[in-house]
Design a protein that fits this description.
- It is built from four helices and two strands.
- It is of the alpha+beta class.
- It folds into two domains: 69 residues, no CATH class; 48 residues, no CATH class.
- Strands 1-2 form a two-stranded antiparallel ribbon.
- The longest helix is centred in the middle third of the chain and has 21 residues.
């Protein structure tokens, strides 16, 4: 079988990867006000570069940034919408499955105006990933 050189590939990885300790520490420092947004971005950039290289080293032909720039896969998206704001409130979610029960605390939001989209969400993250990956080919 010949190796494909254009998408779709036989296997791709899409989505979250485990965050490295340095990134988790930087996020905690940023949340407590000890680390600037620019310094957090620098740690995110380094983490994304490392995880892209790892994916390329194992032979993947496409790469994900592991969602390293996100705290929550959906809330970081929602908070970018106009008319939506973060709140200090928390939502308690109760799960029950065959293994038992679990309570989870989730961030809340407030819709204070008509929901709008003024900018392309995560465009900068995509551009950085595209420019970082060497094996990804654009159509």
């Amino acid at each position: 079988m010949t190796r494909r050189t254009t998408p779709p590939f036989r296997a791709d990885h899409v989505g979250s990867l485990l965050r490295p300790q340095a990134l988790l520490a930087a996020r905690a420092q940023h949340a407590s006000g000890e680390l600037s947004a620019e310094a957090l971005t620098a740690v995110e950039d380094a983490s994304v570069r490392d995880v892209v290289r790892m994916q390329e080293d194992v032979g993947l032909q496409t790469a994900t940034d592991g969602e390293f720039r996100r705290t929550s896969w959906h809330m970081d998206f929602i908070y970018q919408l106009g008319g939506v704001a973060k709140t200090d409130e928390k939502l308690m979610v109760h799960f029950r499955n065959a293994d038992g029960e679990l309570d989870f605390e989730s961030a809340a939001l407030k819709v204070h105006d008509r929901v709008t989209l003024t900018d392309t969400i995560f465009a900068d993250a995509f551009t950085f990933l595209r420019d970082t990956a060497s094996t990804v080919q654009t159509p």
